[in-house]
Recover the amino acids of this structure.
């Protein structure tokens, strides 16, 4: 790396190497330190964000640079209450890190209280009210005490809960709790299906019936939240009640439900006897070769291997008859030897050999 530097003779700012080489400050934070340090005396009333905006440091970049300056002790802030009760944020900017004890003296020298969120006492205003001079009291235009309290009370009397609302909030069973959980979770699928607790409990009877008929909670949630109207759901309770009634699945009829009830003193009926599994008998194979047996499932006389060998032999006989050759002891060899020379294999071999006059030669 080549290095070339010319010291400026005017309009420059001295920067400490501790600032330029600070490991915890980004480039924007270092530029802000140098920029604010070189400001003239009449330009210090602006906030740090205004100076950063002039340098093109905005948004998240400024927030990140400011957080680093505050963390390293270059920027200190304090909220004070100024004139007419308005809160003002005072900023202290330094080109060297300062501790809280060092900053405390600077706040006191500047006339700012040292407490956090302090209040600057100001004398009361000597101005006249803008509404004019005070007047005498007007008599005879006040409402009665009872009527005034009834209409203008900021805290109206608490309504007594009715018996129906208290009955809805009774403890639920396990099935009813599962049904309520499914109904309240519909708000995650669509904002139009948002239900309150009282609205959800008004649909518990139909929802529990779905669960008793074997429909799991996930499938019930999918049925209730799918294929919604394009213009949205106007009334979630009415929409869900109609869908629960119209899409109710068939009831599962249990066999035990139709059995006659027996007295508790009678012993339970014995279980039905187990049916033994059918095992086919062993049969001696009638095919050639060494004597062997197999299990015949449908009165077969030959095992599967012998049946397959016989099928191949019959195919070889038909093939030999088509080719016009006699079968030897080895039927497969006879078939291979008696192939038609005008077949595709013969024409391919003749074309490869280049026999003249052959219709298959090229």
């Amino acid at each position: 790396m080549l290095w070339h530097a010319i010291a400026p003779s005017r309009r420059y700012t001295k920067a400490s190497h501790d600032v330029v080489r600070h490991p915890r400050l980004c480039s924007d934070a270092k530029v802000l330190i140098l920029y604010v340090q070189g400001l003239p005396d009449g330009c210090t009333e602006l906030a740090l964000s205004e100076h950063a905006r002039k340098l093109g440091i905005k948004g998240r970049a400024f927030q990140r640079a400011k957080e680093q300056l505050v963390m390293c002790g270059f920027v200190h802030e304090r909220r004070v209450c100024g004139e007419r009760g308005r809160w003002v944020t005072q900023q202290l900017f330094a080109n060297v890190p300062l501790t809280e004890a060092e900053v405390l003296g600077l706040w006191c020298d500047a006339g700012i209280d040292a407490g956090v969120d302090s209040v600057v006492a100001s004398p009361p205003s000597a101005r006249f009210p803008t509404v004019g001079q005070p007047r005498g009291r007007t008599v005879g235009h006040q409402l009665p005490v009872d009527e005034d309290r009834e209409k203008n009370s900021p805290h109206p009397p608490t309504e007594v809960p009715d018996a129906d609302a208290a009955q809805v909030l009774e403890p639920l069973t396990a099935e009813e709790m599962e049904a309520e959980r499914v109904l309240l979770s519909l708000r995650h699928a669509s904002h139009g299906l948002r239900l309150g607790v009282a609205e959800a409990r008004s649909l518990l009877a139909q929802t529990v019936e779905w669960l008793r008929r074997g429909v799991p909670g996930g499938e019930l949630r999918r049925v209730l939240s799918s294929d919604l109207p394009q213009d949205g759901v106007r009334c979630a309770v009415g929409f869900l009640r109609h869908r629960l009634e119209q899409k109710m699945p068939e009831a599962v009829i249990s066999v035990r439900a139709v059995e006659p009830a027996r007295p508790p003193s009678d012993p339970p009926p014995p279980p039905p006897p187990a049916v033994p599994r059918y095992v086919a008998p062993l049969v001696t194979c009638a095919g050639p070769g060494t004597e062997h047996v197999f299990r015949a499932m449908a009165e077969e006389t030959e095992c599967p291997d012998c049946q397959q060998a016989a099928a191949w032999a019959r195919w070889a006989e038909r093939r030999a008859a088509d080719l016009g050759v006699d079968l030897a002891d080895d039927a497969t060899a006879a078939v291979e030897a008696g192939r038609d020379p005008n077949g595709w294999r013969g024409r391919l071999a003749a074309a490869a050999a280049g026999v003249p006059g052959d219709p298959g030669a090229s």
About this structure: Residues 213 and 250 are 7 Å apart (CA to CA). The longest strand covers residues 75-81.
